[in-house]
Amino acid sequence: xxxxxxxxxxxxxxxxxxxxxxxxxxxxxxxxxxxxxxxxxxxxxxxxxxxxxxxxxxxxxxxxxxxxxxxxxxxxxxxxxxxxxxxxxxxxxxxxxxxxxxxxxxxxxxxxxxxxx
Amino acid sequence: xxxxxxxxxxxxxxxxxxxxxxxxxxxxxxxxxxxxxxxxxxxxxxxxxxxxxxxxxxxxxxxxxxxxxxxxxxxxxxxxxxxxxxxxxxxxxxxxxxxxxxxxxxxxxxxxxxxxxxxxxxxxxxxxxxxxxxxxxxxxxxxxxxxxxxxxxxxxxxxxxxxxxxxxxxxxxxxxxxxxxxxxxxxxxxxxxxxxxxxxxxxxxxxxxxxxxxxxxxxxxxxxxxxxxxxxxxxxxxxxxxxxxxxxxxxxxxxxxxxxxxxxxxxxxxxxxxxxxxxxxxxxxxxxxxxxxxxxxxxxxxxxxxxxxxxxxxxxxxxx
Lengths: 117, 320
Prior knowledge:
Number of helices of chain A: 4
Oligomer: heterodimer
Distance between the termini of chain A: 50 Å
Number of strands of chain B: 9
Strand order of the largest sheet of chain B: 1-2-3-5-4
Strand content of chain A: under 5%
CATH superfamily of the largest domain in chain B: Aminoglycoside phosphotransferase (APH), C-terminal lobe
C-alpha cells in the first residue's frame, strides 16, 4: 500500500462520525439539513470504496455480454434501434447495473414499498 | 448595498400603489427559487400572496396569470388573481388571494389532521383535472405547445455532451416511449406539474391547485401520468399521489370529464414523467458540476438519478 493508515475509507468514516456526533447535534435548520446531506454523501463514498472495485469488473462483464466496452456504445446502440431484437436481454443487464448503483447510492430504496401491478 | 429592510419597505410601497390600498403590512418572504420568489403580505387587512420573477427569468408571467384566470373561470380550485404585471414589484409579478392549507407532502401523507383529506384527494384531483382539461389551451395567448419527448430528448443530449456521460436506462426508456407512443385523442390546457407539493390541502381535501408556471398545450393524460410518478408518492405504497390507486383515479376522471381513459396511455405518460424527473435531477446536479452553483446538496442529487432509473424499471415491469 502506498499510504499509511487510516485508509481512504477510514478517513471518510472519521469525518462522517464527527458530523454525526458533533455537527448534527449542535446545529439547526438549514445548516443541520446540510449536515445530514453531507453525512449521507460520505456514507455513499464509504460504500463505493467498499463495493466499487468489484462493481467495475461486473459492469464491464455485463457490457461485454452485449458486445460493448462502455456505456456510450450501449446507449447509442439502444438509441439507433440496433438492440431492439435483444431488448429484454438489454433491459435485464441494465437493471443489474442500476441495482449496483443503488447499492452504493441508496441501498434502502430497493426495499421501499411499491404497488405497481 | 440595499438592506433587507429597504427591500421590504420599497416592495410594500410598490404593492400599496399597485393595489390602491392605504397600508401593506406583514410582508414576509415565504420561499424563493432560482427564478422566482413568493411573498405573503396583508393589504388593508386582507391576506394576499405575491409571486414575482427575478430579473433574468425569461418566462412571461403574464401567460401564467391568464392560465390561473382561465382555471378560476372553469371552476378549478385556484387562488383568485388580484393583479398582475411588471415593473417596480418585479420583472413579472402576480398578486393572488391567500389560501389556508398545507402543501408539504409528507405532512399531508402522514398527519392525522389530513386523514379525511387523504380519503377524498384522488376523486377531488380527478375532478380538478377534468375541469382544467375542459379549457382550450389554444385560446390562452402565449401558452406554449411543446412535444415533451422531443424537449427532454434535447435536454438529455445537451447534458450528456456537457457532462461527458451516457445513460443506457434513459435510452431504453426513450426507445420504449417511441415504440409505444399512443395517439393523442385530445389537446387541452395541461397543468404540467400537478402533484403533492403543488396542491394546497386542508382538512376536507384539495382546496387549491398552485404553481402553474409549467402549464402548456398538450395531451391531458400527461397530468394523470405525472400524478402517478413514484417520486410523487413520497415513500407511500399507493401509486396516485401516495393516497390512491389507478382504478380510483381513472374512474373518477371518467365520471368528471365524460371522457374514457386508457390505463396504458396513463402508464405511457407515467414512464415519460419518471424519465423527465430523472433528467431534471441531472439538470440540478449539472449546475454544481458545471460551476453555476457549487453545492454538495446539488452534487448528491446526481446520485439519485439511479432511483429514477429503478422507478422506470418498476413502471415498465413486464411491459418492455
